[in-house]
Design goal:
Helix content is about 40%, strand content about 20%. By secondary structure, it is α/β, with parallel strands linked by helices. The protein has two domains: about 1-175, HUPs (Rossmann fold); about 185-280, Pantoate-beta-alanine ligase, C-terminal domain (Pantoate--beta-alanine Ligase, Chain: A,domain 2). The model has no long low-confidence stretch (mean pLDDT about 95). It is globular and about 55 Å long. The longest helix has 16 residues, at about 125-140.
């Protein structure tokens, strides 16, 4: 497995690979890798000739009061995990290389970023779409793999790729969960024992919303209330949102007639968690 930090060396590598025309799979990450990330790499390994992983804590997607400074940076452990997952190359750039002092361009997806995470974190998606555009251009993959846990991000990236006619297929992979349902996340390591136990409320609330839908409840407001009710039993929690949305537009649904995606975000102390699940009317 090779590690490249320089943009120029990555470009040289990609040009050489272009002559051989391998099928390249790409997994962009911010490091602090867990089983969710590794599941993306293993799928890419099955479907592609070469697997590239980027490890870059992207400052543009952090707000001024967020956890950029304390975000876990565990490169040596990440490197070992990538090697075990069959990764061929890690791209590990420095901030000054991706964003030199002369950098002044942003990539914005407008409508899909207005609600939910975009409302709570106003600069977040602009940072995500800018860095993902740069990474896709540098790596030149045929397929890029994203986890469902960040579902709004996945939809935004799909729109970005479509709008800019980028020659890559965006693959959504299932959320990987702990045994008690908590979605795996690099930020879970911030949770103390009591907070970790409380964190399962997020998945349980979403599951309550899904059960309401499968039981035949059609009102988006009633489904939302079912999810909120469970969380409000715990005053230690701060709810950012629970919502019932159209799975493609992410617009809130007043009535569920077929499929919906349930999105939720809450805070436990200084830790912010997000999750989502799909639900189909009348199906288990």
């Amino acid at each position: 497995m090779r590690v490249i930090q320089s943009l120029r060396r990555l470009q040289v590598w990609r040009c050489r690979m272009g002559q051989q025309n391998p099928r390249i799979g790409f997994v962009p990450t911010m490091g602090a890798l867990h089983e969710g990330h590794l599941s993306l790499m293993r799928r890419a390994r099955k479907e592609c000739d070469l697997v590239v992983v980027s490890i870059f804590v992207n400052p543009l997607q952090f707000g001024p009061a967020e956890d950029l400074g304390r975000y876990p940076r565990t490169f040596q452990a990440d490197r070992k995990a990538c090697e075990q997952a069959g990764v061929d190359l890690i791209f590990f750039p420095q901030v000054k290389d991706l964003y030199p002092s002369t950098f002044q361009t942003s990539v914005v997806v407008k409508q899909l970023t207005q609600r939910w995470e975009g409302e709570i974190r106003p600069t977040h998606f602009q940072g995500v779409t800018t860095v993902v555009t740069k990474l896709l251009n540098l790596v030149g993959p045929h397929r890029a793999y994203f986890g469902q846990k960040d579902y709004q991000q996945y939809i935004v990236i799909k729109q970005l790729v479509e709008d800019l006619s980028l020659p890559v297929t965006i693959i959504r992979c299932p959320t990987v969960r702990e045994a008690d349902g908590l979605a795996m996340s690099s930020r879970n390591r911030y949770l103390g024992a009591t907070e970790r136990e409380l964190a399962t409320v997020l998945y349980r609330a979403l599951s309550a919303g899904k059960k309401a839908i499968t039981d035949g409840v059609r009102s988006g407001k009633k489904i939302q209330q079912n999810m909120m009710r469970l969380c409000k039993k715990h005053p230690e929690l701060s709810i950012d949102y629970f919502t019932v949305c159209h799975p493609l537009t992410l617009e809130p649904l007043t009535r569920v007639d077929r499929e919906a995606v349930l999105l939720g975000a809450l805070r436990i102390g200084k830790v912010r968690l997000i999750d989502n699940i799909f639900a189909f009317l009348g199906s288990a």
